[in-house]
Amino acid sequence: MTGGRLGMIDEHFAQIRESLEGVEKLSAAEKLRLLELLGELRAEVDALARSRDRDAMDVSLLAAASAREAVRIPRRPEVLGETLQGLVASVEGLENTHPRLVAAVNRIALTLSGMGI
């Protein structure tokens, strides 16, 4: 992976963490759960980056966009739905080679949905 792409992935995950930590409407337990899921996603994106760095960057970018929309005030549910769909779509076709990545993305989408975000 090139240093530029790795730097962008690092930046995307820093943006996600910052977005989640700044949300007042989530309980401490919900934030902790989302941060744990973020850690899982990061590990899987890093694994993907070893063989498909462009795909890894795309997943991290869409995850950052989804996180931004999840905490945006005022809420724009239609935009959040679109960004989450984009995130899920970004890992389609990777089920055989990166099943844990696909599972991590699905857990994040389900968790956000379950929290009413």
Contiguous helical run count: 5
**According to CATH, what is the class?**
Mainly Alpha
Percent of residues in β-strands: under 5%
Strand elements, count:
0
**Average pLDDT rating:** 88
- Mind summarizing the main beta sheet? none
Distance between the termini: 33 Å
The number of domains: 1
Question: What sort of overall outline do the alpha carbons produce when their principal axes are compared?
Answer: globular
Helix content: over 70%
Q: What this model shows, in words?
A:
This protein is an all-alpha fold. It has a single domain, classed as Enzyme I, Chain A, domain 2 (Orthogonal Bundle). Helices cover 77% and strands 0% of the residues. It has helices spanning 3-21, 28-49, 53-71, 77-90, 99-114. α1 (3-21) runs parallel beside α3, α2 packs antiparallel against α3 (53-71) and α3 (53-71) runs antiparallel to α4 (77-90). The longest helix has 22 residues, at 28-49. The termini are far apart.
